[in-house]
Design a protein that fits this description.
Blueprint (H helix, E strand, L loop, with lengths): L1 H18 L10 H18 L11 H40 L9 H4 L5 E11 L1 E2 L12 E2 L4 E12 L5 E4 H4 L2 E6 L5 E2 L13 E4 L4 E11 H4 L5 E6 L4 E5 L2
Antiparallel strand pairs: 1-4, 2-3, 4-9, 5-8, 6-7, 6-10, 10-11
Helix pairs in contact: 1-2
Length: 246
Amino acid sequence: MKKKNTVCIAAMCAAFILSGCGNSIPDMTEQEQKIVAEYAANLLLKYDKNYEVKVVDTTAYHAEEERKAEEARKAEEEAAKKEEAEKAVEEAEASNAAEEIEQTAASIEEFYQLSNVQIQYSGFEIYNSYPEQAEDVDLYFAIGATDGNKLLVLNFDVTNVSGAETELNMLDTGAQFKIAVNGGKSQNALFTLLPDDLETYQGTLAADETVKTVLIVEVPTGESEAIESIALTAKSTEDSAQFKLQ
């Protein structure tokens, strides 16, 4: 009922406007008639309580957008952290491979606490197989290079300096050796059954006697032709020491 009254009031207002102050309705252009009609419609909406201006609440929308933006930011941060960590690992590995070898013990015998002998590096040789002459040792003990590689044989002179007969058992020391060539990655000396393998040598040395021992590692054939530096790492169960051989 109230809505009908409101419509009537608006219609009366419109009629009043159209009639002006006199009794006759003035002549108006089409444009003027539209203006009056719009004014009457606005009056109708103004006094109609059932009409409400609807305001859209965008709070939830903005909250969702902010959440998505925060998730994207966190994902980017995690990806950046992961990339940075991987890069740090790569740099550390490269640094370890290329770093200058630092001598942390005076000698191999000092590191393994061998008081009666002196162990001295005396150079290297390149072989396809070792020993080169099969008659030098039982064929069972011989070792050959794999395809595309050569054997790098490091020579060490072990001398009894005690002035009396002495026994040397490198197995008892738990000796392990790693070798790096031309600043590359260190690799374990090959395990062999050779009687002159320094890593597993066992024997009795007379006073002032010198025996020749070896450590062997494989290197690519191309690299074997241009060996500029050799680094040796001596390891025990608890410690390690590095030696720059050349």
